[in-house]
Design a protein that fits this description.
- By secondary structure, the chain is an all-alpha fold.
- Helices cover 64% and strands 0% of the residues.
- The protein has nine helices and no strands.
Length: 222
């Protein structure tokens, strides 16, 4: 005779519509770029033409020191770069991480505070890139915000383990692995990896975790 498990399964919580909208915007840009490459849309809607307006390039300190007003055209790329990607593979990797981490965070803190984390960490990633990177190339991709989201969850877990006086070795191993992975990829990709944005997003996320707290008890493993 077999014994069946009659315990109720946990309820399925759908991904928040706002996350789907954000992913749809990211996909929409890649569809538009592909269509422009195929000649179905005008060149003005092509990848590099859009990058010139919405990707983040650098901080123009000379422009600001000259006393010129900072226009919206210089501000928006601090955020809009996170919705652009360098191709379908780049989007697929970032999109999967964004949905996974975003879904966890929205369940724990709600969509409003999730959006605060996304905006702040994306902007922090761009600013760090602008301060450190020595390149004329554009910064595109949501990875700064993704590292920020991961930092928030990691910081919450570190605090929970610390207060419970449990070992935090897994936390330090995770951070060490991320540092090693970024260093290896930065070297292997010949400088094409924007590790500066990852660093800025991570630091901002870790700091935000001290201000924004989860609604309820146990934290998921990430």
């Amino acid at each position: 005779m077999s014994i069946e498990d009659t315990s109720p399964s946990p309820p399925h919580i759908p991904v928040h519509p706002v996350l789907w909208v954000m992913i749809a915007v990211m996909i929409g840009f890649e569809v538009m770029f592909s269509a422009a490459d195929a000649g179905w849309l005008p060149e003005s809607m092509g990848r590099w033409q859009v990058y010139l307006h919405l990707a983040f390039f650098d901080l123009d300190f000379e422009y600001m020191r000259a006393g010129n007003p900072v226009e919206l055209a210089f501000i928006w790329p601090l955020l809009t770069h996170a919705f652009l990607h360098g191709g379908w593979l780049h989007l697929a990797m970032n999109g999967a991480a964004f949905l996974g981490l975003g879904h966890v965070l929205v369940q724990m803190i709600g969509i409003g505070r999730f959006l605060v984390i996304f905006v702040v960490t994306a902007v922090a990633g761009a600013l760090t890139f602008g301060l450190i990177a020595d390149t004329n190339g554009p910064l595109v991709g949501a990875s700064g915000a993704i590292f920020g989201m991961l930092a928030v969850l990691t910081a919450w877990q570190e605090r929970t383990l610390r207060l419970a006086r449990l070992s935090r070795s897994a936390i330090w191993r995770r951070i060490g692995a991320l540092v090693f992975l970024n260093a290896a990829l930065a070297f292997g990709l010949g400088g094409l990896l924007a590790w500066q944005a990852h660093l800025g997003g991570w630091v901002a996320g870790w700091l935000l975790a001290g201000v924004i707290r989860p609604r309820y008890g146990l934290l998921p493993a990430v």
